Amino acid sequence: MLIAVGIHILLLMFEVLVCDRIERVTSEHVWLLVFMPLFSVSPLSVAACVWGFRHDRSLELEIMCSVNILQFIFIALKLDRIITWSWLFFVAKCNQISTSMFHLVSGFPEK
User: Fold this and answer.
1) Rounded distance, CA 47 to CA 61, Å?
2) 45 located within any domain
3) Structure pTM?
4) What's the confidence (pLDDT) of residue 7?
5) How many domains are contained in the chain?
6) Per the domain annotation, does 11 fall within a domain?
7) Which of 94, 99, 106 is closest to 62 using CA atoms?
8) How confident is the prediction for the chain on average, in pLDDT?
9) Which PANTHER family does the UniProt entry name for this protein (predicted)?
């Protein structure tokens, strides 16, 4: 319960920082700072996944947050113009990485 509350508070902080960054065009903080709560959510989600798997709980949000850490990092770098890839290549690679990590974490269906 406490881990879920922590995850939701960090997601709320991310939403507030995104709204602040979008509202103020000349904002001092860069997108990497805006994404910091999401970077904190991912290790916390891994801990929640381990706890949930040990106690046979259903987890949806925690799995998605834990496998998308690379996508969060790449989106922040792309928005700060540190990475100059095209968006099509960028989205395709991030989705491929996230999908493969999701399958590794959730396990393949048995035949």
Assistant:
1) 13
2) yes
3) 0.72
4) 85
5) 1
6) yes
7) 106
8) 81
9) FAM11A, B PROTEIN, TRANSMEMBRANE PROTEIN 185A
Give the DSSP H or E segment for 62.
Answer: helix 61-67
Q: How many of the other CB atoms lie within 10 Å of CB of 81?
A: 9
Is there a domain that residue 7 lies in?
yes
Q: Which pair of tokens denotes residue 1?
A: 């319960």
Looking at the domain assignment, is residue 111 inside a domain? no
Calpha distance 92→27 (Å, rounded) = 30
For residue 75, the 8-state DSSP code is H
Q: What letter would DSSP give residue 82?
A: S
Distances (CA, A) of 102 to 8, 67, 98: 20, 6, 6
Give the DSSP letter string of 5-49: HHHHHHHHHHHHHHHHHHH-TT-SS-HHHHTHHHHHHHHHHHHHH
Residues 6+ apart with CB under 8 A from 66: 42, 45, 46, 48, 49, 105
- Percentage of the chain beyond pLDDT 90 is 13
CA-to-CA distance for 44 and 31, rounded, in angstroms? 21
Say which residue the tokens 């999908």 belong to.
99
Boundaries of domain holding 29:
2-106
